[in-house]
Amino acid sequence: MTWMRGIRCRIRAWRVARARWRADMAEFKVAQKEARRKGERPEHPGPPPTGFSLLPWLLMGLGSFSNLLQGKTPNPWIGGLGLLIFNSLYINVVFRSFVKEKRETVSTRVALVVMGLVTCGLALGYGGSWLYFFPLLGLATGACLRGPRLGQVGLALTALAAAVSIYRAGWDAINVAYGTFLSTMVTAAILSLSEAVRELRAAREELARRAVEKERMRFSRDLHDLLGHTLSVIVVKSEAARRLAPRDMEAALGQITDIEAVGRQALTEIREAVTGYREGSLATELDRARSVLTAADIDPVVRQSGPPLTPQTEALLGWVVREAVTNVVRHSGAARCEITLDGVLDRARLTVADDGTGNSTVSGSAEGIGGTGLKGLTERLAAAGGSLRAGPSPRGGFTVTAELPVEATDLTSFVVATAPREP
Questions:
Q1: Where are the beta strands (DSSP E) in 298-411?
Q2: More confident residue, 388 or 77
Q3: Backbone phi, then psi, for 417, in 5-degree steps?
Q4: Angle formed at CA 10 by CA 154 and CA 187, multiple of 5 degrees
Q5: Where are the beta strands (DSSP E) in 220-361?
């Protein structure tokens, strides 16, 4: 029953995608309201489009379904089977079209071609309301084929729809061809524009992160120069004090006093210089997490969005990533671990989710954090005005959620949602 397991996995993946989309949409609405209240332009672009946005168009096939139920369609079993095949292929193609890697695979293109053949067969065989499957085919084509060949394919599909419509319903059905052309080109234009905007935002955020990393590298070189000079002075004066001590204790004490002054001055300069720079890099922790999960045969999925964080916030997030990933490796028995970091207005959210089945004694309440590591993180976040929650996820696996308000110069609040179980 491998095919049944595959269907269940696909349905589970759709449910997860739907839940994530709803959460993103809720955040988007909150961001819009906050931006309107402050008279600012909302920064949150909203949740990325998914296949669910094209599913309502299947209602165009209700006329054909109604004809089947009322017995107005000859050979209803053939029509019903064709309707089922078309809807199944449509759902498969549109959902795969929103993932670039899957959109460009041969299997997706083959499914689109088969859907076109089924559409032609149903339209030629029955006509009438069955002709409206051509605009649906145009939607799937526009979502799947976004590139230089779209114009040629769109015109060819429009010509095919026109020919079939004229053959079955005369010139009065030419609007089917017009609808097919519009659905193909408009869908492709909107989705391509949305994808381009998101890629540009991601590129801008990546450039900002690289600028921060470059600044840290520059500072590390400055710090090296500062310590190199100071330590050289201390070494020289220490050698002088050692040589003078047997002959002139007063002079030696003078050198030691200078060493103390230089040390105190260096300590002051270093404290001033490293303020905000001594915290660990979150990017480093994420790279380590990928390496550790891969070594443990766990599939790592890391997503990042939002502006760069301040070093203090990165340090807290890095500790959470380290502790959560350690728990995934040690206790979850998971095959997949997702780490998601996104920032919206005054919030930064970090999600570490596993699909494991390991036992957990951690309560899901805010005060029910189990394990020494997560308890320590809870205290750290509470000291900074934040919170951390842990508990089993409704979809399986384990969840840890932490919130942290941050300064205006930071990304803003930070949430850790899903981490593994504590012993």
A1: 299-304, 336-344, 347-354, 387-392, 398-403
A2: 77
A3: -110, 150
A4: 20
A5: 299-304, 336-344, 347-354
